[in-house]
Amino acid sequence: EVQLVESGGGLIQPGGSLRVACAASGFTVSNSYMSWVRQAPGKGLEWVSIIYSGGSTYYADSVKGRFTISRDSSKNTLYLQMNSLRAQDTAVYYCVRDWGYHHDVWGQGTMVTVSS
Amino acid sequence: VLTQSPGTLSLSPGERATLSCRASQSVDSTYLAWYQHKPGQAPRLLIYGASSRATGIPDRFSGSGSGTDFTLTISRLEPEDFAVYYCQQYGNPPFTFGPGTRVDIK
Asked: What is the number of CB-based contacts under 8 A between chain A and chain B?
């Protein structure tokens, strides 16, 4: 069964750093396109970042220069390193597998709260 | 930029729902998808390529459209269909979502 399980969310102070992880099963992360999508409280979905199977990465303008997407093939895990966190980064972060030209498998999400 | 209308749709079970997604520039229909999102759950892929149903999606859900105008239709609303629906373009990054349409029970 294809499954994604996020971890690492929590409460962090503004300006701090946090890394969230996404453990995949049933498929190989390094052979897939993988994205992060977030939803701030009371807001809609916002695409955050993608890592292609070849290793290229892209980011939303709102996180460019602060967030880094990466993967560990040995652990079949996707990561999102978040630095210089702001209150506006408070959201549920979803790990997503991309297939074709859409997001076909979603994790349950991990909550990141940026607050003093 | 994707715009969705209406913002909220209040309907009764058994009624037909028609949700609109309009793009500021033409979108290749290959790159247009629809998702359903319920509180406390992960979003779920409904439609990809503007009109293809994802695996396991009931045939009461259908997608259509091309260019700048796309539509998601739910032919007869079931109680489990009350949720927020998002369209998304997956052309080149950033892969923007529309603001969503909430389908409420009337």
From this structure: 65
